Amino acid sequence: MPRRIAIAALVAGLAGAAAAADDGPVPEPEPIGTMSELMIKLMYPASDAILYVESRAPTNEVEWNELQAQALLLAESANLIMMPSRVVGDHDEWMRDARLMFDAGAAAYEAALEQDLDALIALNEQVYMSCVVCHRRTRPDYGRNYKRFDDPPAEAGSAIDEGRVP
Ligand code: HEC
């Protein structure tokens, strides 16, 4: 009976894997992407989904799901950069700065779950500032190479209107 054999093989395989894992060192979180890769490939698009939510407002369940995923990614990205090996500069300041992104992302996720567009728009400034605060402190080239992004917008939404990114 091929099906039963397949299941037996699967069970044996799992047992083997478990045994192998027991023998080796206990796995720990390990970075794959560089800080720059995380920023460009995860945080940047995830925060854009929130920062541009007014003009890209979800219109159906599928789009709300996608927005929820982006907000969740933004919040969980904060956990990724809080991994000990990823800390840049002063530990405590790094953790506090990352927590700003965690809080902004968590609030955006909550609002996205409730499909509350107004709440998401209201969170724009908080999301934007969560990026700016850490960048000002940790990126020495921030003022020079990122001139476009140096000052927070006077009013929520103006960063988006001007096409700036944090
Ligand atoms: C806790 C600190 C911290 C937070 C929070 C943070 N960043 Fe960064 N970001 C960095 C550091 C450090 C670099 C420089 C990385 C490098 O070049 O090695 C960086 C670089 C970047 C870059 C440039 C990457 C490159 O190589 O050109 C982008 C884009 C970026 N961040 C986007 C964001 C966005 C969007 C947010 C907020 C949603 C954010 N970051 C929040 C620390 C942070």
Enter the CATH topology name.
Four Helix Bundle (Hemerythrin (Met), subunit A)
Largest sheet: none
Distance between the termini: 60 Å
Number of domains: 1
CATH class: Mainly Alpha
What fraction, in percent, of the residue positions are helical? 55-70%
| Total DSSP E strands | 0
| Mean pLDDT across residues | 83
How does the overall form come out from the CA principal axes? globular
CATH architecture: Up-down Bundle
Low-confidence stretches are 145-164
Q: Spell out the helices and strands N to C.
A: HHHHHHHH
Query: What proportion strand?
Result: under 5%
Count the helices. How many?
8
Ligands present: heme C
- Rg on CA atoms, Å: 21 Å
Category by helix and strand content: mainly alpha
Search tags:
single chain; mainly alpha; binds heme C; Four Helix Bundle (Hemerythrin (Met), subunit A); globular; disordered C terminus; 166 residues; 0% strand
Secondary-structure topology with pairs:
Layout: H1 2-23, H2 35-51, H3 61-81, H4 91-113, H5 117-122, H6 124-138, H7 142-145, H8 158-161
Helix pairs in contact: 2-3, 3-4, 4-6
The structure holds heme C (HEC).
Question: Mind explaining what this structure looks like?
Answer:
The chain has 166 residues and is an all-alpha fold. The chain has a single domain (35-161), classed as Four Helix Bundle (Hemerythrin (Met), subunit A), CATH 1.20.120. Helix content is 67%, strand content 0%. It is built from 8 helices and no strands. Helix 2 (35-51) packs antiparallel against helix 3 (61-81), helix 3 (61-81) packs antiparallel against helix 4 (91-113) and helix 4 (91-113) runs antiparallel to helix 6 (124-138). The protein is globular. It starts with a helix and ends in a 5-residue tail after the last helix. Mean pLDDT is 83; it is low at 145-164. The chain binds heme C (HEC). Residues 35-36, 39-40, 43-44, 47, 81, 88, 94, 97-98, 101, 130-131, 134-135, 138-139, 166 line the site of heme C.
